[in-house]
Amino acid sequence: MTRQHGILVPSAGERRFTLTRHDPSADLASIVDRFWIVRWDLRDQPPFEQETLPYPCVNLVIGTHRPGVHGPATSRFVARLQGEGWVIGSKFLPAGFRGMVAAPPAELVDRVLSLGEAFGSEGRDLDREVTEAADDGSRIARVERFIRARHAGPDAETAEVNGWVELARCDASIARVADLASRAGRTVRALERLFRAHVGVPPKWVIRRFRVQEAAARIAAGGAGCAELAQELGYFDQSHFIRDFKAQVGRTPAQYAKLCASRAAAP
Predict the structure, then answer these.
(1) Exposed (0-12), middle (13-18) or buried (19+): which is 103, by Cβ within 10 Å?
(2) Could you read off the pLDDT of 95-120 as tens digits, one per residue?
(3) Residue 95 lies in a domain
(4) What is the distance between the alpha carbons of residues 231 and 205, in angstroms, rounded to a whole number?
(5) Percentage of residues in the chain with pLDDT exceeding 70?
(6) Could you tell me if 120 and 51 lie in one domain?
(7) Concatenated DSSP letters for 42-100?
(8) C-beta of residue 211 within 8 angstroms of C-beta of residue 168
């Protein structure tokens, strides 16, 4: 089953666009998480806004909707789809994009660089070549060649940081930075420095994002209530959970549950 974590109100989008995911070639698997392709045809239909709560990483996007280098986003992302269009995205691992551009990861947070700003004429050429490619396989192959030419490959610290981010995602017992630092065998301060250097955002933010993504996925599926979620996800109390959820999703858990239910019932 495909994970819907990060896609807000997923049932609504299923009727408006298609999403396919593709694994990277083996030699890029330590840098790129996956490639994703979205297509929509809303001609003679009203525009549709798809909200996401992005993973802590960089996405390289090419296509008809907001192409560019999308840095880690600290708030929800809203894609307004209209007419007919497509995009292909390269979702890098959290520390995988470091070295692709001159700017350090921390300077990419909440920013979108055009392909020209990020890569100069090579970025504009990539945009044109991917757009003109005959099929999805050719498009992915062209992007992979571009990444290989610009990325020196991960170092040991990059691999470690990626592993710690994945640990924070998978292990619900990690509710605080001190928990992750202990598992990583680093001091809290050292872990914070490594995350800012390689991911761009601090470990506290990464842990909070994963907890809210998990909560949103469970609410959308009609799962646990607010008090139960707060306890299971390691929040000090229910009020802290509600504030954290609203700050990232833009709605309280109750409001989000109501929205998911109404969208699921809509024809």
Answers:
(1) middle
(2) 999 999 999 999 999 999 999 999 99
(3) yes
(4) 19
(5) 97
(6) yes
(7) -TTS--EEEEE---SS-EEEEESSS-EEE---SS-EEEEE-SEEEEEEEEE-TTTTTTS
(8) no
Neighbours of 199 (CB within 10 A): 30
Q: pLDDT for 42-76, tens place per residue?
A: 999 999 999 999 999 999 999 999 999 999 999 89
Domain of 79 in residue numbering reads as 10-150
What are the strands, taking DSSP E only, across the chain? 17-22, 32-41, 48-52, 59-63, 68-70, 77-81, 84-92, 112-113
Give the contacts of 112 (CB within 8 A, at least 6 positions apart).
66, 68, 69, 70, 71
CA–chain centroid gap for 8, Å, is 12
pLDDT, tens digit (0-9, with 9 covering 90-100), for 7-32 = 899 888 888 999 999 999 999 999 99
Q: Are 140 and 234 part of one and the same domain?
A: no
CA distances from 147 to 12, 103, 112, 123 (A): 33, 16, 18, 11
Same domain for 172 and 52? no
* Residue 60 domain flag: yes
Mean pLDDT of the chain: 93
Band of the pLDDT at 4, cuts 50, 70, 90?
Answer: low
Judgement on whether residues 21 and 124 belong to the same structural domain of the protein: yes
Structure token digits, residue 213: 């993504």
Rounded distance between C-alpha atoms, residue 209 and residue 207, angstroms: 5
